[in-house]
Amino acid sequence: MKIYLLCAAALACVPGVASAQDQVQDFAGPRAELRVGYETPTISDDGDVYKIDSAVSYGGEVGFDVQAGNKVVVGPYAVYEFSSVKLCDSGFCLKERGNLGAGGRIGFVATPTLLVYGKVGYTRITIRATDGFDSASESKGGVQGALGVDMNFGRNFYGLIEFNYGDYGKFEGVNLQRRHVAAGIGVRF
């Protein structure tokens, strides 16, 4: 009798396993997301680090993910974020206009609804300087990396939290970096 109950319990689990495998597949395909974040661009010179400002950023990301085995997801992404970072002193202002990024990400399916991922790619930041009379913008490219998690809220919707770091190298004689945390919601098609 115990053997029959054990077999019945094992058979009852099969649909749950199949359902979990279906949810894992939800990480594959094209995706689009809206993001809001908090960022701190910094400059450093001779070992000293200075914050330009800390402020809100907002934007979006698109990507296409492919299931590479049972637990691995890979794919390209492109992101653009506007920023409200601004630093003014004696009529002279620096403002970050936006940050563009593109690269690839690789993720590990931790649970049927949770993807832990890392990203690496190219990033380009644009800074605008004004002195009350004239203004000029300059862009600088660099590398960025990120760690984050996606959590499915159903078949097509997900939420995310991501930690970013961008290094732009020398910008006007000083080193420029960007630290950023973002949260967002997205849809998979």
CATH architecture: Beta Barrel
The percent range for helix content is 10-25%
Q: What pattern of helices and strands is seen along the backbone? A: HEEEEEEEEEE
How is the biggest beta sheet arranged?
Answer: 8 strands, antiparallel, barrel
Radius of gyration: 22 Å
- Number of extended strands: 10
Low-confidence spans: 1-9, 13-25
Q: How many DSSP helices?
A: 1
Mean pLDDT: 86
User: How many domains in all?
Assistant: 1
Order of strands, main sheet, comes to: 1-3-4-6-7-8-9-10
Characterise the protein shown here:
With 189 residues, the protein is mainly β. The protein is 13% helix and 71% strand. It has one domain: Porin, CATH 2.40.160. The protein contains one helix and ten strands. Strands 1-3-4-6-7-8-9-10 form an eight-stranded antiparallel β-barrel. Strand 3 (55-67) and strand 4 form a beta hairpin. It is elongated.
Key features of this structure:
8-stranded antiparallel barrel, 189 residues, Porin, disordered N terminus, mainly beta
Summarize the structure.
By secondary structure, the chain is mainly β.
List the helices and strands and how they pair.
Layout: H1 2-25, E1 29-45, E2 48-51, E3 55-67, E4 72-83, E5 86-89, E6 92-111, E7 114-130, E8 135-152, E9 157-171, E10 174-188
Antiparallel strand pairs: 1-2, 1-3, 1-10, 3-4, 4-6, 5-6, 6-7, 7-8, 8-9, 9-10
